[in-house]
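Write out the 3D structure for:
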Amino acid sequence: QVQLVESGGGLVQAGGSLRLACAASGRTFSTYAMGWFRQAPGKEREFVATIRWSDGSTYYSDSVRGRFTISRDNAKNTVYLQMNSLKPEDAAVYYCNADRAGTRYWGQGTQVTVSS
């Protein structure tokens, strides 16, 4: 089992920045990748960004590429999402995920609110 705990959500004005963090614990060895999804009210959960644990390769959705940056701290088993130039449409619950041994684990989510 892998446990994921997110932090860093909150309220920010449009154009502002936030940094989310997700700390993994438990059976974290052999984790293939970690990343972030988000879900706005009335919408499906959508992919935001992911980072491959072995080599740090990153992938982003078109809607956040160039504004968001995903990074990792191997020693802390933590992944970060730096969000810049936030827009009202970025408001959502952000969920951390970890892919390990064919299983996807989820955190509890952290709320990001962007005021216009």
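The mean pLDDT is 95.
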